[in-house]
Amino acid sequence: MHSSVLFTLASGLALVHAQAPTPVPGVTGKLGNARIVENNPAGVSYVATLPESDTTDIRGSVVGTSNSNGTGVNFQISLSGLPDASLGPFLYHIHDQPVPSDGNCTGTKAHLDSYIRGEKPPCYPVDPASCQDGDLAGKHGNITGSSFSTAFLDLYLSTAKGPQSFFGNRSIVIHTSNTTRLTCANFTLATGNATSGGNSSSNTTSPVSPTLTPFTGGAATTLISAGAILAGMAAFLL
């Protein structure tokens, strides 16, 4: 009897795993892969500071600064007050539109997607040029824990006005793992002059291994389903 139950459990978990969205190598945008941004103006920084809010305890900031050699943008992420881990891992993206005056994060529209890739299948982080340029979580790892900080270089975003990859007039949005929007903030110029530079060049980079959990889209539903199967089978065995 136990062998039959274990077989059923294994089959159920295999089905859940099969339904989970997974990154797919080789997916690219309708306009090709993202191109590396060069000649970003020196000394330019944009910061998005999450607002005080009665609906969430999440606070912190996202700072993007031109790389010293002009290629790409160095990001620093510092967050606290994230909700229960059962709602994570948490996602964060640069969205195409700024936060409207009413503060409604829905008004930021979709992710910044200069090359028209779309959100599905999930970003393949080993090949970040194939991801949406605004998908920071997909390229650099999800947010984990109640407090979170990280720093990374993103080669595909611009601190210069003009290119589609310019993020200084856009917003950052924090999501639960099922993409519910928790909080958001606009980027504003902190230092420097962003009126020139930001040319795109080659879209070829050496693949790098991801260091954090890749973007998994609707993983929350999958995890809940797996938990339900485990709980049910454990109760049956007892």
Which helices and strands occur, and which strands form pairs?
Elements: H1 2-19, E1 37-38, E2 45-49, E3 59-66, E4 73-80, E5 91-95, H2 136-140, E6 148-154, E7 171-175, E8 181-191, E9 199-200, H3 219-237
Antiparallel strand pairs: 1-9, 2-3, 2-8, 3-4, 4-6, 5-7, 7-8
Helix pairs in contact: 1-3
Calculate the terminal CA-CA distance, rounded to whole Å: 13 Å
- Helix count equals 3
Any idea what the radius of gyration is?
20 Å
Shape: globular
Estimate the helix proportion, in percent: 10-25%
Biggest beta sheet summary = 7 strands, antiparallel
Largest sheet strand order? 5-7-8-2-3-4-6
- Poorly predicted runs are 1-20, 204-238
Order of helices and strands: HEEEEEHEEEEH
Overall pLDDT metric: 81
DSSP strand count: 9
Beta-strand content = 15-25%
Give me the secondary-structure category. Answer: alpha+beta
